[in-house]
Amino acid sequence: xxxxxxxxxxxxxxxxxxxxxxxxxxxxxxxxxxxxxxxxxxxxxxxxxxxxxxxxxxxxxxxxxxxxxxxxxxxxxxxxxxxxxxxxxxxxxxxxxxxxxxxxxxxxxxxxxxxxxxxxxxxxxxxxxxxxxxxxxxxxxxxxxxxxxxxxxxxxxxxxxxxxxxxxxxxxxxxxxxxxxxxxxxxxxxxxxxxxxxxxxxxxxxxxxxxxxxxxxxxxxx
Amino acid sequence: xxxxxxxxxxxxxxxxxxxxxxxxxxxxxxxxxxxxxxxxxxxxxxxxxxxxxxxxxxxxxxxxxxxxxxxxxxxxxxxxxxxxxxxxxxxxxxxxxxxxxxxxxxxxxxxxxxxxxxxxxxxxxxxxxxxxxxxxxxxxxxxxxxxxxxxxxxxxxxxxxxxxxxxxxxxxxxxxxxxxxxxxxxxxxxxxxxxxxxxxxxxxxxxxxxxxxxxxxxxxxxxxxxxxxxxxxxxxxxxxxxxxxxxxxxxxxxxxxxxxxxxxxxxxxxxxxxxxxx
Lengths: 222, 278
Ligand SMILES: Nc1ncnc2c1ncn2[C@@H]1O[C@H](COP(=O)(O)OP(=O)(O)OP(=O)(O)O)[C@@H](O)[C@H]1O
Ligand SMILES: [Mg+2]
Hints:
The complex is a heterodimer of chains A (222) and B (278). Chain A has 222 residues and is mainly α. Chain A contains seven helices and no strands. Chain A has helices at 6-35, 39-70, 75-107, 118-139, 142-172, 177-209, 217-221. Chain A starts with 5 loop residues before the first helix and ends with a helix. The mean pLDDT of chain A is 94. Chain B has a domain at 28-122 and 193-273: Rossmann fold (3-Layer(aba) Sandwich), CATH 3.40.50. Chain B has ten helices and ten strands. Chain B has helices at 70-77, 107-113, 128-138, 144-157, 161-164, 177-190, 207-220, 233-239, 257-262, 267-273, and strands at 30-41, 44-55, 59-63, 87-95, 98-99, 114-117, 195-199, 225-229, 242-247, 250-256. A six-stranded mixed sheet of chain B has the order 6-7-8-3-9-10, with helices on both faces. Chain B has a four-stranded antiparallel sheet with strand order 2-1-4-5, with helices on one face. In chain B, a hairpin with a 2-residue loop joins strand 1 and strand 2 (44-55). The model of chain B is unreliable at 1-23 (pLDDT under 50). The interface between A and B is medium-sized, with 13 and 15 residues. Bound molecules: adenosine-5'-triphosphate and magnesium ion. Adenosine-5'-triphosphate (ATP) binds at residues 41, 46, 64, 66-72, 84, 119 of chain B.
């Protein structure tokens, strides 16, 4: 049975999808700006952060209005709650992307410390995780979301490797310190993006199954 | 003819296994056991082989679309339906381990132990005071001090005392619809029944009176086993410990209330509680 206010939920869902797509685009562009030393692209990423902030506010308002007027139950209740949480995670993803873009601007003024291989690889993983978490939202495929939660560890591992590598650069050549620190923060940002993707995946499993897997080690270790 | 009253000790343990999830409220022993119960109005079968256990000192909500048989089942629990012509049942209903269809049981005694609030308020054409003490007078209890005490306690319990304490001896028909419904609740609890059956008790009440009745239900479950029929999903979610969803005279899902409203197992239940049914 279709209800006259079902359109409200459709808007809510599509805003969340739009927010996910926008956050993914921001991360991709920020990392591309870093690798290609493209200051113009970095500036566009920084300017576009407003889009995510505004979407988060819009989603919150829609959720509050829906809860207030419709008192949702069961799947609808979970959708509204999960939508609010996921939009908060996506807004934070946007903040991390903006941070990466700002560092990309500063790094573009100097020669690269080393060829950027691990950072784009890590960023690709984080973006894939976001994409799969969103796919779970669109298609209800919780297997994909579970895989996201497990992949979080791989990103952590690369982050730690990079940390060690950059530390040895700094010890050997103090002239690299400022650039190495920027890269460390970027690596940390990407690791945080993967954490947010993991949160979103957990939220999507809750949405689909009504099951809270946040602190379930059997899920994380597979 | 000798009569038997139901023993109030030696309660049976809950037999039905449930899918209670982590964090679900503890399940009290079954106080009412409905066993493969079917019911007919003439040739029409309106309840189909229902089996469920209703725990004591908890609130159980019956929900489902209009005409699915909620009131019929409720009225069977105190054999109210006996008054209708051409009725027939199969299966059994046990209260505290004893069949309510035991020929030795006195129906009047059974109803005394089971208070009932109806879908439409039905005060007697008497004063407010006499409405509340009616069942006590029938039982031959006429002491003024006792009756005064019962009237005050019951009307306070039903959140009506302040509004009527100065007009206790006026006709109950002078009350508003919502006040009449609360009067019926006061009447139902006056005799301290073990079980309280409520059929949409708040359907004619404003939000404040509704909140009072819900608070009252919360209080009463310390003493009574309560079954409530409601069409208000938020109300069922707020007041009940367990919820049974019926459709076309069949029990579709029966579980801890939080499961029914947060993550129902059955697609029909989900559609109904979300208002997508039909
Ligand atoms: N006295 C009666 N004689 C014949 N049929 C009846 C009688 N009372 C109820 N029915 C029928 O039994 C079925 C169940 O009715 P019941 O009143 O139990 O439904 P309900 O779930 O309480 O509905 P509502 O939510 O509208 O109060 C309906 O089809 C109804 O028409
Ligand atoms: Mg009814």
